[in-house]
Amino acid sequence: MYDYYLGGIHNFPADQEAARAVIERSPLIRTIARYNRAYLGRAVSHLASLGVRQYLDLGSGIPTEGNVHEVAQAQIPDARVVYVDIDPEAVSESLELLAGNPYATAIRADVREPQAILDNPQVRKVIDFSQPVGLLMVAVLHFVEDNEEAWGIVGKLRSALAPGSYLVLAHATVDELVFDPQLLKRTQDVYRRQTSTPLTPRTKSDVIRFFDGFELIEPGLTWLNQWRPEPDMVDEFKDNPQMSSFHVGVGRLV
What we know:
Layout: H1 2-5, H2 13-25, H3 29-49, E1 54-58, H4 68-75, E2 80-85, H5 88-98, E3 104-108, H6 114-119, H7 121-126, E4 134-138, H8 147-159, E5 166-172, H9 181-194, H10 204-207, E6 214-216, E7 222-223, E8 246-253
Parallel strand pairs: 1-2, 1-4, 2-3, 4-5
Antiparallel strand pairs: 5-8, 6-8, 7-8
Helix pairs in contact: 2-9, 3-4
């Protein structure tokens, strides 16, 4: 569905049907998806500029424009990347794209089983957890319904990271003035009926708890369009940033 929102070609009729149903209820979803992808690119580019050489991308999805390894390796040619997704098609497409790239791979795993991800031999082969890691959790945690489970996932992953690692997060929000309650319910109903991952947006106070143990870097936890925008970026949410519907931030493990 995310690939469909971005205008990609790696999606199936069932994905298209579900995505169109969401677009009908939330017409801004395609714009939000583009901004989310652009935020990921800006965040990875910033981490690479700080010298972060390895990345663990959870809920990476089907490859599309501006993939993490492309952004990181543009600055650090031997930057290491592991893509993790629950969808076998996403993993297959990723492995096909990464053929011949010795510094990146993809595995199939469930974000709700963080220890299995940390113990995966392919992850351990690519990622050296004694060195800083960019942990990328962009638009994935709102597919974990239970708050305690979601916070626990990040806590388990955080415990494996070396100081100087970073958490890059993007999360759908239900803060006041963002979602009409009935519109949110109808959108959630689409995900429940047509996917195995129900949508669970959270408040800003809930989202910021994911950064326990991390020190947020400037500009802190912001709306999707406000995190270090490019100077020439055309900002469709400038006057109403809450309409971007996502809280995002980058934190450094201290």
